[in-house]
Every structure is written in C-alpha cells, then in structure tokens.
Amino acid sequence: MIRSDTNHDAIDEVVYLQAYAEGWSDGKYEIKFDKRECINGGRFYERADDGKWSGWFFTYTNVRARQFSCVSIQGDSNTLADLVERDHSEAMSLFIDRAEAILHSSFGDSYYWEARRSMRYAKHLVEIGDKFRSEKLNSNDVSDKTVLDKSWVETKKVRRSF
C-alpha cells in the first residue's frame, strides 16, 4: 500500500483522457466527451490508504490527487475547454493526463501546414540517415524522388498518387 503521510497538499483532480473503446460511431467522427470506465488509466494510478490517488506526476513521487476520473474524448482544444468548464470548474488544480489525445483547434489550417513544411532535420542527422539509406536500403533522395528544395518556401505540394 502507498504511504499517505508524504504529501499534505494534493492536486484536486486528475482527468485521464482516452479514446472511445468502441471507436467512431458508424464510422463517423463526432466531437464529444464522456466520463467513462478507464480503459488503461487504472494501470497508471492507484488509490492510497487515505483515499488519494498516486501516479506518475513527472517523477514527483510524493504528489497525490484527491479525485481521479477517465474521460473518453474526441475533439480539439475547444472540446477540452468545454469539458473543463462543464465538469471541473470548481477545481483549484487540475491535471490533464494524455492531453495528446486532443487536436489543436487549427489543426490542418494553412498556418499549421506552413509550420509543418518549414520543419527540417539538422544537417548532421540528414547525413546519418542518408548514409544508412544508401548502405542498408540502396536508397537515396534522387532515386526515391524525395529531394527537398533548399528553402521550404519553394516547396510546392505535388500529387503523385497516379
């Protein structure tokens, strides 16, 4: 059993975000969230002898939470904001675990893709990758038609699927 005398302060609530166990309804993506039974969250948190919850709080072993719940969610950052406003507005401290389940509101817009296209690996990493591809895969940018322009600004979307 976990000792409860190591922390006198606690996080008010932990919300463990998860996908819906049943996936999308009828193959249709829908913005929604519901408090649900934990799919995996219960593996990462356990209740201490004083009723508080312990888990992995960025290596801080003495941190506890007063409440713990799992929420299935499909949506973006606005959906998460709605969840917090509706169900957790009274919490003084709230720990959102697995926030990578949330898409940001502007995912896929022109600014997102501009930022995405501008990303480049460091030159020394490209050289290591090129050497591996050449030696192990008999592959290179020219034969694979993956040559990048010197400047990302010059890169244009080209459809090559047919």
Automatic annotation (TrEMBL):
<keyword id="KW-0808">Transferase</keyword>
<keyword id="KW-0119">Carbohydrate metabolism</keyword>
<dbReference type="GO" id="GO:0046922">
    <property type="term" value="F:peptide-O-fucosyltransferase activity"/>
</dbReference>
<protein>
    <submittedName>
        <fullName>GDP-fucose protein O-fucosyltransferase 2</fullName>
    </submittedName>
</protein>
<keyword id="KW-0294">Fucose metabolism</keyword>
<dbReference type="GO" id="GO:0006004">
    <property type="term" value="P:fucose metabolic process"/>
</dbReference>
<dbReference type="InterPro" id="IPR045130">
    <property type="entry name" value="OFUT2-like"/>
</dbReference>
